[in-house]
Amino acid sequence: MDLNLSDEQRLLRESAERFVAESYDADHRRKMASDPLGFSPDVWKQFAELGWLALPIPEECGGLGGGPVEIGILMEAFGRGLVSEPYIATVVLGAALIEKCGTTGQKEALLPKVADGSLKLAFAHSERAARFDLAKVATVAHKTAEGWRLSGSKIGVLDGHAADEIIVSAHIHDHRGPSGRIGLFLVPAKTPSVAMSDYQRLGGGRACNIELSGVELPQDALLGDDSDTLPAIEWAVDRAMAALGAEAVGIMQTLLDTTLDYTKIRKQFGRPLSANQVIRHRLADMAMQVDEARSMALRAALKADAAPVERARAASGAKAKIGKCARFVGEQSIQLHGGMGVTEELEVGAYFKRLVAFDTLFGGSAHHYARHAQLGRTA
Fold first, then answer.
1. If you ran DSSP here, which 8-state letter would residue 197 be given?
2. Structural contact between residues 312 and 303, judged by C-beta atoms closer than 8 angstroms
3. What does the pLDDT look like over 121-163, one tens digit per residue?
4. 167-186: pLDDT as tens digits
C-alpha cells in the first residue's frame, strides 16, 4: 500500500496550511468565540472559492469528487488553526447523507448549493437517552395525508443554529403503526414548531438542542424513499469520526510544536528546560502519541468505504486511540508550560479544550473500545 500523498494531495495540504496560518490567529479565534454565529461568513465564502466545500461532492453535482483522505488532509490543517466553521456539519455529515440517501432530484437541487456555500446543513440525530447508540431514535415521523408530522427532541446538533436546512432522523410510523425504519427528513431551520437553544461548544464552535413539536412537512421532505437509513447514518458518522480524528492530529501536532519551542527558550537554573533528560523523554512520548494518532486517523480514512464491519472497526479504533493520545498530549503540553499553560495568555488551554471536546463527540474512548470489541466478535 502506497501511503505517500499524490501531487494534488500535497498541494491541498500546502494551500490549507498556508491559508490557516495567514487567517487564524489568537485575536481571530477570540473574536469568533464571542460572536453569536461562532464563525465568519466571509471565511466560509473563501472556503467555497477555494473548492473546499465541493471537495467530497461528486463531480456530476458540481463537486470535485474527493475522498476521505483529502478530507483528512484538510481537517488536519483546520485543527492547527482551531477552525470553527461548520465544515463537519455541512460537508462531512450533511452533504454525505444527501449523496447517500437522496433522490437524483434532491442531489441535483441541494449539493451544488453546498458546494457554492449558499446552503449550510446540520445533522440532528443524537438524543438524550440514546447514549451514543445510533440505532436508538425516539423522535417519530407520522405519515399524514399531506406529508409528515415530526415530534421529538435532539441534542448536540453541531452548528444547528447557523444551518439553513436540518437533516432530522426519526422513526417512521405509517398507517400500520411503527415501521421499525429510520428515515431522514429535511427540515428548514425557520420552520414553525422548531425550537432551538444554542450554546458554545468547549474549544470553539457552537451546537444546539432542538425541540420538534408536531412539525408539518411536505411529502418530499423525506430524503430518498422510506427505506431504513440507519446503515447510511452509521456510514456518515464513521466518516465524520475519521475527519475529526484528523483534526485532533492537527491540534496535537500544534501542541507538540508549541511545547518544543517553549522548552527550548524557557530557562531554569541557567539552562533551557529541553536540556533536561526527563523533559526530552516527555517530548519524545508526545511525538510518539502524535504519530500513532496520525496513523490511526489515516487508517480510518482509508477504510471509510470498506465493508461495514471493517469500516466501523477502523473508525471506532481510531476514535478510541486518538482520544487517549489526545488527552495525554494535551495534559503533557499544559504541564510542561507550567502555570502559563492554564492562562488565557497562551493558547495551549484553548487547544486542549478542543481535544477534550473531541474525546466526547460521537462517544468517548470507553464507548468505542467496547464497540470495537463487539464488532470484532461479530466479524
1. E
2. no
3. 999 999 999 889 999 999 999 999 989 999 999 999 999 999 9
4. 999 999 987 878 889 999 99
Name residue 216's beta-bridge partners. 149
At position 29, the amino acid (one-letter code) is R
Evaluate whether 331 touches 256 at the Cβ level (below 8 Å).
Answer: no
Four-CA torsion 48, 246, 100, 57, nearest 10 degrees:
30
Question: Rounded to 10 degrees, what is the CA torsion of 47, 51, 56, 61?
Answer: 120
Instruction: Please tell me the distance from the alpha carbon of residue 316 to that of residue 44, in angstroms, as a whole number.
Output: 30
Q: How far is 248 from 254, CA to CA, in rounded Å?
A: 10
Find out whether 207 and 138 touch, Cβ atoms under 8 Å.
no
SS3 content of the chain, % helix, strand, coil (to 5): 55, 20, 25
Q: Which helix (H) or strand (E) covers residue 375, if one does?
A: helix 365-378
Q: How far apart are CA 64 and CA 60, in angstroms?
A: 9
Burial class (CB in 10 A: 0-12, 13-18, 19+), 292: middle
pTM comes to 0.93
SS3 label, residue 284: helix
Query: Measured between alpha carbons, how far apart are the two ends of the chain, in Å?
Result: 23
Q: How far apart are CA 295 and CA 57, in angstroms?
A: 25
d(C-alpha 8, C-alpha 62), whole Å: 19
Contacts of 261 (CB under 8 A, 6+ apart): none
Q: What is the DSSP letter of 34?
A: T
- A 10 A CB-CB count for 306 gives 13
* CA distances from residue 131 to 125, 135, 278, 362 in whole angstroms, order as listed: 12, 10, 41, 9
DSSP 132-196: T-TT----EEEE-SSEEEEEEEEEEEETGGG-SEEEEEEEEEETTEEEEEEEEEEEETT-TTEEE
For residue 2, the model assigns a pLDDT of: 64
Residues paired with 141 in a beta bridge: 150, 172
Grid cell at residue 162: 447557523
DSSP string for residues in 58-117 = -GGGTS----HHHHHHHHHHHHHHT--SSHIIIIIIIIHHHHHH--HHHHHHHHHHHHTT
Task: Count Cβ atoms below 10 Å from residue 194 Cβ, excluding itself.
Answer: 19
The residue type at 42: D
